[in-house]
Amino acid sequence: MAELTYEEYLGLAAFLKGVQPLTPESHGRVFAAERFFIIADQTTELWVKQVLMDLEHATAAVAGPDRDIELAAEHVGRAGKIIRLLIEHVGVLCCLQRGTSPSSGRPWAPPAGRSRTSSTGCVGCWASPTDPAPC
Q1: What is the DSSP letter of 3?
Q2: What does the H/E/C string look like for 108-125?
Q3: Which of 24, 40, 18 is nearest to 92 (CA)?
Q4: How many CA atoms lie within 13 A of 16 on its CB side?
Q5: Block means of pLDDT (10 residues each) for the chain, length 135 residues?
Q6: 29-34: long-range contacts at Cβ-Cβ below 8 A with a sequence spacing of 24 or more?
Q7: What pLDDT is stored for residue 122 in this prediction?
Q8: Closest CA to 94 of 40, 47, 49
Q9: Angle (deg, nearest 10), helices 69-93 and 28-63
Q10: Which of 5, 55, 83, 135 is the residue whose CA sits 20 to 30 A from 105?
């Protein structure tokens, strides 16, 4: 059996193929904004999945008669560090540049129901659609 390469082990080709904006690359700013959103959202989803797994493993480590407090503490500690990282990650979303949708002429924004949108319709930390917060 041949050894796996780093790329094969991580399944990088398939994983990176998942970053497919619907906007054509020729619509530069909109394409870039949509790609940025996809990457930010996918990384968040992966980290949340890891936190949930760590908390499940921590619970299991102390649930049975052979309680392993040290193992549980490792899992809880890692989950806490990931949560702190996710808090910082929200700051990265402030850099989401809204582009103009080629189909509607209106600013591009993430699909409804998934984005953090203010009452002004702004994404991330934008104060208004024309006045972005500095990155």
Answers
A1: P
A2: CCCCCCCCCECCCCCECC
A3: 40
A4: 6
A5: 90 91 89 88 94 98 94 98 92 68 58 48 42 47
A6: 29/97, 29/99, 29/100, 30/99, 30/100, 30/101, 30/102, 30/108, 31/99, 32/97, 32/99, 33/96, 33/97, 33/98, 33/99, 33/108, 34/99, 34/108
A7: 41
A8: 40
A9: 160
A10: 135
- Amino acid code (one letter) for 43: T
Contact 68, 36 (CB under 8 A): no
pLDDT of 37: 87
Locate 31 and state its tokens: 């394409």
pTM: 0.70
